Amino acid sequence: MKFKDYYGVLEVERDADGEEIKKAYRRLARRYHPDVAKESGAEERFKEIGEAYQTLSDPEKRQAYDDLGRHPSGEEFTPPQEWESRFWRGADPRGGPQGGQQEVDLADLFERMGFGSSGRSGRSAAGFQARGQDLEVATELTLEQAYRGAEVSFSLTVPSRNADGSVEKLPRSGTIRVPRGVADGERLRVPGRGSPGMGGAPAGDLYLEIRLKPHPRFRPVGHDLYLELPIAPWEAALGAEIEMPTLDGTAKVSVRAGMRNGQKLRLAGKGLPRRKEGAGDLYGVIQIVMPPEIGEPELQLYRDLAEASSFNPRQSLEGATTHG
Amino acid sequence: MADDLLIPDDDENPVALEELLAASGLAREEVSELVAFGVFQLAGGGGAVWSFHARTVSLARRAARLRDDFGLNGPGMALALTYLERIEALEVRLKELECQLPLQRA
Prior knowledge:
The complex is a heterodimer of chains A (324) and B (106). Chain A is of the alpha+beta class. Chain A has three domains: 1-114, Helix Hairpins (Orthogonal Bundle), CATH 1.10.287.110; 131-213, HSP40/DNAj peptide-binding domain (Sandwich); 218-313, HSP40/DNAj peptide-binding domain (Sandwich). Chain A is built from nine helices and eleven strands. Mean pLDDT of chain A is 84; it is low at 90-102 and 116-125. Chain B has helices at 17-24, 28-36, 56-70, 74-98, and strands spanning 2-6, 15-16, 51-52. The interface between A and B is large, with 44 and 33 residues.
């Protein structure tokens, strides 16, 4: 089992009192809470913080943790023999081969602790009812999968409590039908398909969080899609019929004469489908692009154009020091 | 252990109050408070039996997380959820605007 430095995680001294630990937890929670922080890695960090706080905020667990002594973080260690009777019932705490289960970690150990111990009312194994844990699964879909719907397989290791209060990590896998019409960040709920409940209590729910993978062309905002649509300066000037890619093919669109940079062409209903009916829109955002190199014949045409045109693009800067 | 094909809840199905309470871990009074603040909206106009839009489940779970992790009370949860919703609306707007800028090509 790998040692974890809970004091280090909470950035407190080993002799910090309960109040200091709570303060440290709140301060770090504000920074790393997944509902508040958006920086990458925040969620992982918050899990560590929560785990450390769970243990250090409970005097009994904290004592047991302190009894382990100091170890460098990540060091392999074996919990003392007497912990077996303290925490485990039936299962081999060290995840030995005879137990045939996966290795437990320090968090599981403290999670188990106190469960089923006599001092806590309502927590004895007999007659104890608890709704099963919810399971959360995150999945990345391509835009095409969101467009058509998809099946997503997952496999997790789920801690589950046996009737006697012992905890086992069980593999859990399944396939979730993702209906067409999901958007980035959406959470789908499958009621009753989380961990089973205890003592006749209902099972938890399963949640699937949808994330859309970046697409080389289309950028989704809700159910709308945006596409950068490059056109040549003369197409902008003269207008053109062009082909615009869509998620399921191409569509012919007209670029009006005099189209400006950043203007949008909207293809109604060509975005991502909505769950019930209808679909978002597809926007082509006009980008007038210059050729990377301009050859002599074109340069001559531009010179002629400059000569012939009386257009002053800087009229609005009247009074500014420009020539002409 | 493999499960059968799991089918998510239909978005349009309303969620009963009891189900919302079980799924989120919020207390009945907390849900009433959040309804009173207008953070949770009742589906179907709200008769004697309360039911909610499916998306309220994730809001309620978020509220319960904020309550547990920061020790928030009802008004605290209402305020936090309101701000988070505003931030999310702004993020969508920001994304919309970013989508109208030329791609940064390396």
